Amino acid sequence: MNNALTVTLRDLMSLEAEAHRLPSPPDWLAPGTPGGEKTSRRQGRGLNFESLRRYQPGDDVRLIDWGATARLRQPWIRSYAEECERPVFLILDQRSDMFFSTRRQTKSVAAAITAGLYAWRAWHDKDRLGCITFNDSQIAVHASQAPTRNLGPVFNDICSYNQRLAQQAPQDPDEDISLNRVLERALGLVPRGAWLALISDFHDLDAQGRSLLARLKRRCAISAFIMTDDVHLRLPDRGLFPVHYQGRRTRIALNPHLRQQIRQALIDHHAGLRQGLERLGIRVRPLVTRRDLLDQLQQGGGDA
């Protein structure tokens, strides 16, 4: 990564090796998913060796491990677990609120890199890959397909939306696509039994959005990657703090009391967001932009 403001196709392609270091996404079905409704296909011979156990009447004699049987002088069989594909679906937020940073990289760049890492992980695991990338005015959709077909188009959209965001700043967007609109679109796209990675700062998550997430949760496992900048933890005690939001520019004269109010308000906001998502059974992974992303993902996320 050479640019803290944008990502390039070369940046995303360079993540292939690092993706090997990611822990596997949660491999479980959402509660309430009926048996037999997981969308899957067998890979290779379709079975993974699980363990050896003693032969019991009724077991398939073709599974007898003759080497273990000869050594232990009683019949032992090899047990297998079915190897199933688990589709990976990414939802990536590249709206204007994500174009913010005080150190290292913007939230939009950190989100794009996170999506790139998990797209490569799907490639390595041979899991079908789908993606929705959206900004303030457009939504790019890729239905779940083999990663050999989808990885390139997904990366092209990630780069295009990310670079467009940097070009448009600091102008305020003419439109405002809500997270709710994207979640409604996802309801008809995310395969049952998939793992959904939702990568955003969730600044506009409301009651309707939580209801849509609850509906998605009934068909797939969800991890929410909350992109944060911990500037509120590093505010100075005093001084002028420039602020620009929705076309308005001003300066705030900081003092110890106001600093503590801002800090506590943002801590409470992040805590409430996390609790609301976890109440839905969603795994929450806060990611702080100034820290190494791969380290945070390996450790299960950072602290907001």
UniProtKB/TrEMBL annotation:
Pfam hit, one: DUF58
Highest taxon of source: Bacteria
Region entry Disordered, spans: 23-44
InterPro entries per UniProt: DUF58 (IPR002881)
Coiled coil: none
Domain DUF58: start-end pairs: 52-269
Name of this chain's protein: DUF58 domain-containing protein
Lineage of source species: Bacteria, Pseudomonadati, Pseudomonadota, Gammaproteobacteria, Enterobacterales
